[in-house]
Amino acid sequence: MTTIYDLHCHSTASDGVLSPTEVVARAIEKGVNVLALTDHDTTAGITEARLAAQQTDLTLISGVEISTTWENRAIHIVGLGFNETSATMTALLTHQAELRYQRAVEIGEKLAKVGVTEAFKQAKMLASGEVTRAHYARLLVNMGKVANENQAFKKYLSQGKSCYVKAQWCDIPTAIEVIHQAGGLAVLAHPLRYTLTNKWVKKLIADFTQWGGDAIEVASCGQTPEQRLLLAQWAKHFGLLSSVGSDFHFPCAWVELGKSLFLPDDSLPVWTKLSLD
Ligand code: AMP
Ligand code: MN
Ligand code: MN
Ligand code: MN
What we know:
The protein is α/β, with parallel strands linked by helices. It is built from 9 helices and 9 strands. A 6-stranded mixed beta sheet has the order 6-4-5-7-8-9. A 3-stranded parallel beta sheet has the order 1-2-3, covered by helices on one side.
């Protein structure tokens, strides 16, 4: 039997809608054997997830998705298999949480200007953990301002739109260094989801490699076979390991824990460098 890995997903500790316990239960139901919970800039859900995974066959490894800024854009770096009690990691995540909070307040102020009153308070009520733009998107959907979350980003929340607020996230070398100091591996998340041209994605991967990054996400659900092969090729070209992750946030038809997360045959999986006991 093949082992199913899913090394990128979210819980209510950030913008997922299932609790860490529910994410673990769903992962088991979907046949996942090894799971990393990778909430945005927080490890707050991991203790609960680990408890839920105890006395089951699921192996839970620590994870986080760190927001960084590169070339004036938000780029996500996943950390895997690190020590959550690491002082440098805790310090970075505490700082990022402060930035996130401040940005959320400012987004609320901008939303007031387009007629959404008390947006911050309401977004906070929708969040059990970190307040992300996804919570604002859900608020706008609930209010009937937009039809779906994607529209909320397109109309209000994306870079360049009226309610966008730039966050001063750490840079990529800092994220990599902190993950390494905590004993983990640094993975460039979803390289094809940054609306960059392939030339720029290659530049991003080249920089990430030069700064000591370990892996890129090669397999995700919903990608085309060509995209998977291209990412596998880039991993090989830059001498990086390959990771897999659904980026699951909530149950829906197109993204599922453990779904279609296979790597092309000649890939070097990131878990060859993770200790899984
Ligand atoms: P933040 O980290 O607060 O900037 O929020 C980013 C999160 O918003 C991402 O992790 C996604 O979950 C979500 N997101 C970003 N763009 C979109 C989009 N176009 N449609 C739906 N969700 C999105
Ligand atoms: Mn998210
Ligand atoms: Mn991401
Ligand atoms: Mn994610």
